[in-house]
UniProtKB/TrEMBL annotation:
It comes from the Bacteria. It is found in: Cell inner membrane. It comes from Neoroseomonas alkaliterrae. Pfam families: ABC_tran (PF00005), oligo_HPY (PF08352). Residues 6-256 form the ABC transporter domain. CDD domains: ABC_NikE_OppD_transporters (cd03257). This is Peptide/nickel transport system ATP-binding protein. One of its GO terms (molecular function) is ATP binding. GO terms for cellular component: plasma membrane. The keyword Transferase does not apply. It is a peripheral membrane protein.
Length: 323
């Protein structure tokens, strides 16, 4: 069996604030193989995006990685000099942000920005760089791509700007793409096109993908495995079909029950009671216990591992799953 492309072990990313230490990522571990698609789900504030930023060395002060290991293709990324990290970002590691305005320069044309991204890592002519840019824009569904290279970000709709951001991530055919809610602003037909393109990219080129999302339906259609995060920790992981069909952690069950599709017409939508804890004051023991219908006094202690052959959850009272 080949070695994983990415190995994350006990990753801890904390924000050192005047109010205290916010443990945004608190002991996260997982691995990812070449061509594998991993879904990362959870409520807002669960640590999903910070996990993605940590992988690419994009956590700004007052946040910093305080512990753990990130090994990419056998190379340790934690503590890597900034120049070496920049050489990897964009070429072998890429990220698609939720807000395309965070990645697009308003005073440069789309073509100029994409050509700069190509030439930052490869010694090619500007013409060759623009030709590659036009090809990837066409792949993500932008019509008349060669002509649109001369347009500026403000001339594109929000959904079109997001497609440009996705196309920029694809320019070098990276080994790993971290996508943070990349299809939120896209309509359903374009979203389906992007998902199909991502699956094709993973299958044909071996590009691994971490797909961060609130949308469980999208994750179920795209991912091979899923990680469910809560309060900076992974509470359940396993094959996406098994986890979303029959979860063993009460939090995962609550996320699924909250979906509108799970309620009959005229029935009130179910929701997880309460709110996620502040990362400045995560409860001792099981962080989900104050909101969990199965909680009891035992949940004041750190939760043990509940295992099935291909599943793992951290819970004192896991939901039983029929064989």
């Amino acid at each position: 069996m080949s070695a994983p492309l990415l190995e994350v072990r006990d990753l801890r990313t904390h924000f050192l604030t005047r109010a205290g230490v916010a443990k945004a990522v608190d002991g996260v571990s997982f691995s990812l193989g070449r061509g594998e698609i991993l879904g990362l789900v959870g409520e807002s504030g669960s640590g999903k995006s910070v996990t993605g930023f940590s992988l690419l060395g994009l956590v700004d002060p007052p946040g910093r990685i305080v512990g753990g290991s990130i090994r990419f293709d056998g190379r340790e990324l934690v503590g890597l000099p900034p120049a070496e990290m920049r050489a990897l970002r964009g070429r072998r590691l890429a990220m698609v942000f939720q807000d395309p305005q965070a990645t697009l320069n308003p005073v440069l044309s789309i073509g100029a920005q994409m050509a700069l991204a190509v030439r930052a890592h490869e010694a090619v002519s500007e013409r060759a760089a623009l030709a590659r840019a036009a090809a990837v824009l066409a792949r993500v569904g932008i019509p008349d791509a060669a002509r649109r290279l001369g347009a500026y970000p403000h001339e594109f709709s929000g959904g079109m700007r997001q497609r440009v951001a996705i196309a920029t991530a694809l320019l070098h055919g990276p080994d790993l793409i971290v996508a943070d809610e990349p299809t939120t602003a896209l309509d359903v037909s374009i979203q389906a096109q992007i998902l199909a393109e991502m699956k094709s990219l993973a299958a044909e080129s071996g590009t691994a993908l971490i797909w961060i999302s609130h949308d469980l339906a999208t994750v179920s259609a795209l991912a091979d495995r899923v990680l469910v995060m809560y309060a900076g920790r992974i509470v359940e992981t396993g094959p996406v079909g098994a986890v979303l069909r029959a979860p063993i952690h009460p939090y995962t069950r609550g996320l699924l029950d909250s979906l509108p599709a799970m309620a009959a017409p005229g029935q009130r939508l179910r929701q997880i009671p309460g709110t996620a804890p502040s990362l400045l004051a995560v409860p001792a023991g099981c962080a989900f216990a104050p909101r969990c219908p199965r909680a009891d006094a035992a949940c004041g202690a750190p939760p043990p591992e509940a295992r099935l052959p291909d599943r793992l959850a951290l819970c004192h009272h896991p939901i039983e799953v029929a064989a």
